[in-house]
Every structure is written in structure tokens, then in C-alpha cells.
What does this fold into?
Amino acid sequence: MKADTVSERSLLAATGLTRAYRGGKGVFDVTLQLNPGEVLGLMGPNGSGKTTLLRLLATAATPTGGQISWFGNSNPRDPSVRRRLGIMLDQPAHFEQMTGYQNAWFFAHQFGLGDELTRERLDELFRWSGLSDARDQRVSEYSLGMKRKLNLVEALVHRPSVLLLDEPSLALDYRAELDLIERLQLLSLTGTAVALATNDVHLAERICDRVVFLHQGRVIREGQVPELLTEVAGSQEVELQLNSPIGLERIRALPEVEAANVEADTVHIVLARGTNPAQVLAVLNGTADLVSNMRVRRPNLGDLFLKLTGEALPVAHP
Amino acid sequence: MMLAGTIWQRELVEFAQRRRALVIKLGFPLLVALPLVISGAPTIYAAMALTMLITIVGALGSGAVLTRERQSGLTLRYRTLPVTPGRLLIERLSTSALIDFFQLTPVLLVVAVRHPSAFGWWPALLLSVAAVLLIGNLLGAVASTLSDSPGEVMLYVIIPLLPLLYLSGVFTPLEPPILLVVSRLLPFSYLYEALLGALGGQPNLLPWETVLGGFGFLVGAIGLTGRFGRRVLESD
It folds into this structure.
């Protein structure tokens, strides 16, 4: 057992964390910490290492380099560490032949909760998640959204000090996402630290205090959300929805364009401060009929990521 | 609704809730064993077939289940529970072996009813069945780390089992002394001897020797299961 060397205040601290997989994927030399009450967003495109990093922090995977300290303890198999973590992994894995309530009951007891306390907390969490009516249904009959809600219930039931959530808003409906945001904000106020892997820039901007951008397994930028947003403040993003592909070279060559990328049928263009979007549209002269829709909006964290890497974050809610 | 708060309770609850699987699990061994025991087939053949049946019942169940769990992400979730991997695997595999034992109970009852005078062999038989079931489950669990396909895992289980059964003297009596020594180092030989005795045949060992062998392998299997916890649950 080693003492926390990064910060006495940190609930979780990773130093030089590396997990390399065959084919060059993984995470490399990641250093981060998570303080009480803090909400940390791990953002990056698919394959950037978000899920691997979250699994390492959740003790579900073993690093090939570096070290992690949980509550000052660097032994991932110590039950006292795991009892204080609430985990929602990317796969909503359950015992499919058992009911939602049976699953939640089982997992709650693994974290040391007694019958009475489990019943009380599960009643509240099933009501909160909207799963009350389906609690006695087999999980095999649940939709993906219901399974992910059940995962959230199971991650929250033992009131962990640190919540580690992989794409928590994925497959949730509008109401459920709002409930999740409110819950996480409340938990953060009571000192629970949250690390969430997400591509949902709106979720990240709304609830994260700090964001870590991951690209090809490495941290490329980290900072407080307002501070990061100032880097793209004043610029604009133009989104062009296309009927047919167009070349981006001419657009990228414009000095007013900081980054341009295409994702599915949409071109994202980040414009430098003070640029008039019409200057860019002029370049499309002759191909303008290929644009079916155009939108100019204020920049967000996704635009900063695009500016830093030239790669767009995938749309969280298509 | 049955609620399970522990790993072994959960295994039992899930088993009890799957009624169709329950009927198949109880019926299948009986279908194989009933003609052998009732018809008065030569005891060496009956003991051989029952040894293979018991070994395969132990090995196949956990191998397929753990492979499916690895695919579905449940193994990852197990890794994050505040339970040591050794304890977790012991709880899981011993419950699975207990369920397998339950599955084989009708077969053992048929043997007991057909050969009541061989009751002196029953302690040895019960211990060696338990030992082989736990070892079979462990073999299946280790095999589940080699592949993501339940079918392929069954192959990985069967490939080492067949020569081990041969070396246990299950298929043919072993003459060379070195092979006899090897057979006594394998749990299947004690099960085979106990079955021979319980079926009214002529075993090569005495009941107390078989009891000792069965007990030793049962204790060894529990220890080995604990040691393999990390290997099975934490391999990627």
C-alpha cells in the first residue's frame, strides 16, 4: 500500500498511467486527479482511450505502467477501495434471467448493505429512475435505456465517494437525462466526486467542473470548463449539412478557418474570431446547391477539440 | 420473489428460476445412466460411462457460463466488486459444482437402489463425485479464458479431459507400474474405482483408500480454485 503522493485532498490520483493493447491502442502516460465534489469529464472520439481509462480507474483493468491511488490506497483489489467506488461501465451487464430488482439487490449486498437499508434505498432509486413498474421484469426484457438506468441505480445504491460513469447519458430519454444531471449535481454538492466519460458536449459543459481531452490514448488538454471555452470564445462554428460530399481542402486553406472536419453528412468548420461566415460560404461558390442545411452557432467544447486535433467528437445524440 | 445477497445464493436463485433448464439438467444424466444401471451392463462399462458423464457435466457447465459472462461484460463487473478474486471463484465454482451434484443425484439414487449392498462405497463415491465436479468446473473456468466462443471452450475442455481419463485407467486397465502411479495422481481414477465398487464390481482400491483420494482431491481443488481466481477473472 502506498500513500497518495499527488495530493492529500484527492480521492483518486493517477500518475503516468499506461495500459497498452496490441495494435497500439490504449492509454499512455495519463496523469490526473479527482477531488471531493468535483465532476470531471473525460472526452474524446471513439478509440481515444476514455473507456480504457475509466476501466483502469474503476479497478476493472490493470495498468501496464504508472500507478493509481484511491483514497490514499494503491491496491486495486482492496475491498475497502472498491466499496467506495460506484461504477457504470460501458456494457450494461446484468444477470439477464433475473429481474431488475434481484440484480440491484445482489449488487447492493456485495457492497455490504443490509436488507433493510437496501430495500429503502432501492425503493427510492427505482422510483427516481422510473423503473418501479419494471422492477419485477426480467432484465432480458429490458430495453438498452432501462438496462443503463438499472446500472445507474446499482452504481448509486451504496452511496460511493467516487462515481465512475461511462457514457451515462447514452440511451437515456430526455426526462431521464435531466434527472441524471440533477442527481449528479446534488451528489457533487454533498462531496461525491464524479468522473464521466462522454462525447456529449452539452452534458459536459453543463455539469463538469473540469474536462480532460483524450486523443489517441493521451491527454492533449485539461482544464476548467470556462477556461477551455475561452479558447474558442468569439469564434463561431458553421455546420453544413450536405447532399453530396465536397472537398475540404479549399475551406481549410482559408486563413479564417481554424479547423474543418466532416462527420457523416455534416461538415464542421470552426471560424477564427471576428470572421464573417459569408467569407467561407463564398468558397462554396458553385457547389452551394450541395448544402441542404446550414447552421451558425456559438462554439463549444467539441469545437475546441476539433481545433486541437482536427478531429470532431462524435455526435452524442444523433 | 427470491432475493439473493451472496454469490452462492445468486447462483442457486438463477438456477431455480430457469425451470426448463432445470428439467433438462435433471433429465439428461438420467437418460444416459438409467439404461446402463438398470440393464445390468458390465460394471467396467457402466463405471466408465458414468465417470465420463460426471466429469463432462462438471466441466462443460461453468466453461460455457463463464464464457458468456465474459462476452456480456459481467466478468468485468465481477472484477469491480469488493470481493477477492479467489473467494469469488471458490463461491461460484463450488455452487456450480453443488448444482451439478444435484443434477446427478437421481443417477446416484438409481445406483444406490440397484446395488444396495455396496453401501460401503458410498462415502468414497460422494467425495470423489464432489472432487471431480469441482475440478471439472475449474477446468471449464480456465478454458473460458482461452476463447470467447462457448463452443470452442467445450473443445478446450474435452481435449485435455480425454487423455486424462485414459491415464486414470477409465478406458482400459493400466498395466505398467508407472501408469498406475500416474493414475493415482488423477482424481478421475478414484471416481472410477468408487463407481466400480458402488455398482458391485471389482475395484483395485479399498473403500478407505478411495475415500482418502476423493477427500484429498476435494481439498486440493478448493485450494487450487482460490489460486486461480485472478487468472480466471482478470485475464483479458
